[in-house]
Amino acid sequence: MDAPTTAPAHGAGSSGSRGSGGWFGDQPTPARGGQPTPTRESRPTPVHADQPTPMHADQPAPPRQNQPTPPARENQPTPPREDTSDAALLRRTMAEIEPIADKVTSYFYALLFLKHPDVRPLFPVAMDVQRDRLFKALLTAATHAEDTETLTTYLTHLGRGHRKYGTLSEHYPAVGECLIGALSHYAPQTWGPRTEAAWVAAYTTISQIMIDAAAQDALRAPAWWQAEVVGHEMRTRDIAVVTLRPDQPYPFRAGQYAAVETSWWPRVWRHYSFASAPRSDGLLSFHVKAVPAGWVSNALVHRARPGDVIRLGGPAGSMIVDHSTDNGLLCLGGGTGIAPIKSLVEDVAQHGRHRSVEVFYGARRDHDLYAIETMLRMQQSHPWLSVRPVVDDSPVGHLSGGLPGAVREYGPWHTYDAYLSGPAGMIRRGVDALVGVGVPAHRIRHDSIEELVGARN
Q: In 10 A of CB 366, how many CB atoms?
């Protein structure tokens, strides 16, 4: 969604007042529920002969006789001051709402659709998957408020990607208003004028980065592409290779992915990796596996046919080959994650540089290696390419034990650039295994774990 250039208006449940202080008034805080602090009446204090004369505040007390001198406190540790920075205030709010994140998210969307019904058409009718994404994205961005580089990269991607939903800059104030409303309602322990000011400042920064990114992207590319299905090949009972012809040139790089929307489920987008490097005929290919209750995946596998038209968002992802080096490529592809690995191999072949490419292709069962023949033919054509199938229930001639375990048996890999594609769990285990065998973390590339969660439905 796009961001406001000024602070959003008050949200429901907001603690800020509407006085001259803008979001927050400049009124003094009343004492104890707004009741005035009582004062003592000036009455003479009776003095008795056997009682000491009361001391006034500006008179020194007489020394006590025969009292031990208290030890010096110069070595006592000074209690640490509470961190009141904006980042600390944001983190405290996040910690308070984390146990009830589902309630906060539901309340946020209820506020948004009630107070701003004009934004409802931007979201899918069924919100079971989409419901958490926008809210989580906003909170994720807020937690990186101090890391300008990471924040800008993350939000630039979001700003560009939200164009395909029809998001406009004027939508951002509504989102900001309801974000503040939801947080103030469910974070009473940490909420207050300073915390609200921190969130307003964070959201203003977040939204402006996204607005600027969308505006810049609009100068060079459409919000989406129309693409006709020109090929549909079933490889297994639940995996299809879908080939598309976009209505205008579609610039992308091998290893990237795109968001896909079908006519059967409007405004429901899922991410799929390109299964080939850019082709001279401009065609695009995806490998799609139908998963249980997967709206987009089942539509693409079981309903789409040549002549159908779908929509594509812009290309995304940084799992691309660095052609300025001769480093070898270590590629791990699990299931349909072999698709972008295949595109990387084609990319290396097109650039004509001889560099070692080692591919580990994993699946649960032997018949799930639907692209093994294609990969083995590529191995025969390119002497620098090695393809090793890895199957959990291993038949004779295949490696077993899962991709991470198989990779540990070979190597060394510390001079290779590593690429991983597949289920999120496989990527996490694969990264741990690669770091464990000496591959530097900065040379390990994969799709965003967050994008992968639910992306193949």
A: 16
